[in-house]
Amino acid sequence: MSSSSDRSPAVDVRAPRSYEIRTYGCQMNVHDSERLAGLLEDAGYVRAPEGSDGDADVVVFNTCAVRENADNRLYGNLGHLAPKKAKRPGMQIAVGGCLAQKDRDTIVKKAPWVDVVFGTHNIGKLPVLLERARVQEEAQVEIAESLEAFPSTLPTRRESAYAAWVSISVGCNNTCTFCIVPALRGKEKDRRPGDILAEVEALVGEGVSEITLLGQNVNAYGSDIGDREAFSKLLRACGNIEGLERVRFTSPHPRDFTDDVIAAMAETPNAMPQLHMPLQSGSDTVLKAMRRSYRQDRYLGIIEKVRAAIPHAAITTDIIVGFPGETEEDFEQTLHVVREARFAQAFTFQYSKRPGTPAATMDGQIPKEVVQERYERLVALQEEISWEENKKQVGRTLELMVAEGEGRKDGSTHRLSGRAPDNRLVHFTKPGQDVRPGDVVTVEVTYAAPHHLLAEGPVLAVRRTRAGDAWEKRNAAEAAKPAGVLLGLPKIGVPAPLPAPANSGCGCD
Description:
It contains 15 helices and 21 strands. By secondary structure, the protein is α/β, with parallel strands linked by helices.
């Protein structure tokens, strides 16, 4: 419970209050955080300056429950904020997301200085709960058991002016033994196709030129509305939206990856030649124990069909090493699939117990040192393949969408960075003319590294776009805001369809 001594009656509640959101986990959480930011700004809050590090009036944790030590990280961060809150009258702390959905009342018992706990199904309640906690001077814990409003109906403060997530479904109907997400996000619920396309058209009208269709199991879209081809129809419909240059999606499930989806990818001009297809394991025995409803032959068959239809497609994956009961022979089957599939990248994870999942109590838990050794062998193999596949790009002429915040060394190297159609990251020489995030440049690849490409020669062409205009307009408006409430430049940038290694493995794919 928050005591009355934590708050001062002298606080002017009419003055704009600042907020900071800390996001953990998968792309769904990143998109939810955009909704939370939109809700708070709609309620009159302003984004805290970049690097405020807990000095905002409201700090929101959007949590992930996947990793074994997720709760330890949360309580460590909450403990760090406790003395700051004690010295700052009126400060509030809110915890939402999957860990909040799972732990509920436990959070305020372990961290009684938390003001609000809300779940994955009622993110729209955050401003109301914050105000209620302020007025009643006690913690508010409200966890809904089912979705109250589809997230896309809520206000949004998007992190990118030129690229956007578009959620097409929430929840998941799978029962993978390593995953707790379905229990926390609920059964799959699909949006109406017309609502999705209306959102996409509205985004394009605002200057967005790239969208990523988002779902826990994105290509199962249609199961809730009784149409097995709904996802491929949606892809094709996106191809008819004027001004939409790039369409991506994440993350699909091999079980639902049908031939009509491959055909739609190949035949829709703005569907990008890139696919993130989680493997998890190459062993049929392990896949069965994981309750993954496909086997090695089925998986490799999909890869073969995609490459036949889209020769330049870059295919990436997720792999778990050391699942309970995994033998050396099972692991060799995973290495075999990696060699056959020749992934552009693989996001690899050492199995860790997800509390509340069937796998956490399975026999045959693998010793840490064995998992580590296998993990290192897998990473070494994939690094070799990634480099070989990237070297095939040298000499190719590519159109890049200029990205923001993707090249950490761009300032010192006098380069800019962009994403190729297949989502490869390319660093290129800064041209003489001004280019903005969202603009498109044409370059020739001159060098390949395992995780990026270089275009060291002059830029061959620059195309200024409506997306670049939108980025410029947005940043000019933010720069004009009063000092002290600057939003700063967005730091997430293009919502890439690939999960970043530090934020992946949510088990929802």
